[in-house]
Amino acid sequence: MVADLAWDIQLSATQVWQREQIILEVTVPTSDPFARLKADKVVIPSMEVIALPARRETTKTGQEQLSMRWQFYPHTSGKQTIPLPVIRYYLNGGTRQKWLPPLQTIEVQALPPYLPPTLPVGAVSISSHIVPSGILRPNSLAYWHISLHSTTVTTAQFPALLKQLKASSDLDVLPAKISLNSDTATGVFQLDYRIPIKPKTSGHLDLPSLQWHWFDPQTARLEQIHYEPARPWVLALWQQILLLLGSGMFLLAVGYPLIKRGLKYYRRWQSKQHVLQQLRTDTLSYETMEACAKTHDWADNFSLRQWLEAWRQCYGENQLLQDAVLAYEKRQFSNFK
After folding, report:
1. Residue 41 neighbours by CB distance under 10 Å
2. CA separation for the pair 254, 258 (Å, rounded)
3. Which pLDDT score is estimated for 1?
4. Residue pLDDT, tens place only, 265-320
5. What are the pLDDT digits (tens) for 133-169?
6. Omega before residue 53 within 30° of 0, cis
7. Which of 235, 253, 268 is the last residue in one of the domains?
8. Do 104 and 16 fall into the same domain?
9. Least buried of 134, 159, 295, 330, by fewest C-beta within 10 Å?
10. Residue 88 forms part of a structural domain
């Protein structure tokens, strides 16, 4: 036997607009790992009803619970009721307990009469891309993939995009393939279009802008979506070759001086490190200082003091280096005597 269960029912809203989504959820805590909830199909003539998959989840308190959810979209205005069938707690091959949810009442407000019956009540998002990506060629077939998706609007209310896709003097639009890819597990409604297109001329791909109106139930305002798709370049093969050559010459013209300058600074850095390395090992030589001067474009036939001053102006004071150079100068002078 199963002890009396703590059933609960939650309604997302009690005052809604026509065609606005309502979510009703029935939950019950459980400690049985194999328990499930079952119910007959919900049919309400004045509403569109979508049953979501039953699920098991862990609450914030760590308690396991089972739940069943439905989405309701009322078509008519006025006071309406939502009757649910008996919910069965199913365990070990049989029904262990039944529960009849209480009748739920909602108030449905009529939409303004000037709105068309297919206008979305809620937001619908759009994304798109072209296959193949990158630069296209004139008179070559490509595909424009468009995806419409929403968590609050069913695909029956999605905007009619195909009416906005018309051929032009620069673009052929061929019959589209439409596929329904809604996911009841996540509650996402999705409609995908695969539209063959063939550009006729060079330039930016002449894709049309897409737009539609939708009713925002939160603000009771009519909103508009204006979508500008990405428009890749359309270039013939010879144009692509010219573009590639031009880009290469530009990169060479810009990059060569930068590379040359970078190598110059790298050689200077190397010569500086060579001086500092010999300074640490007390092996500083005239040849190393001479190579450093040439790399830095310092004056030819410099004296050691001139070299030291040039270093100070370039890298700042270095007392150890100054002492080493002056000691080297003193040794050379002693040898000369």
Report:
1. 7
2. 7
3. 45
4. 888 888 888 878 877 777 777 788 888 888 888 776 777 787 877 888 888 888 77
5. 888 888 899 999 999 999 999 999 999 898 888 877 7
6. no
7. 235
8. yes
9. 134
10. yes
**Residues of the domain holding 255:** 238-336
Query: How many separate domains does the chain show?
Result: 3
Burial 81-106 (b: 16+ CB within 10 A, else e): ebebeebbbbbeeeeebebebeebeb
Q: Where are the beta strands (DSSP E) in the chain?
A: 8-11, 15-17, 22-29, 36-38, 47-58, 64-74, 78-82, 87-91, 94-99, 104-109, 125-131, 142-150, 171-173, 177-180, 189-199, 203-204, 210-216, 221-227, 233-234
Residues 6+ apart with CB under 8 A from 87: 7, 26, 28, 37, 38, 39, 68, 98, 99, 100, 101
Q: Are residues 129 and 229 in the same domain?
A: yes
Is 66 inside a domain boundary?
yes
Owner of token pair 């305002």 = 221
Pair 312, 266 in one domain: yes
CB 161 within 8 A of CB 148: yes
User: Do residues 74 and 16 make contact, with C-beta atoms less than 8 angstroms apart?
Assistant: yes
Residue 73 lies in a domain: yes
CA nearest to 209, candidates 191, 194, 230, 223: 230
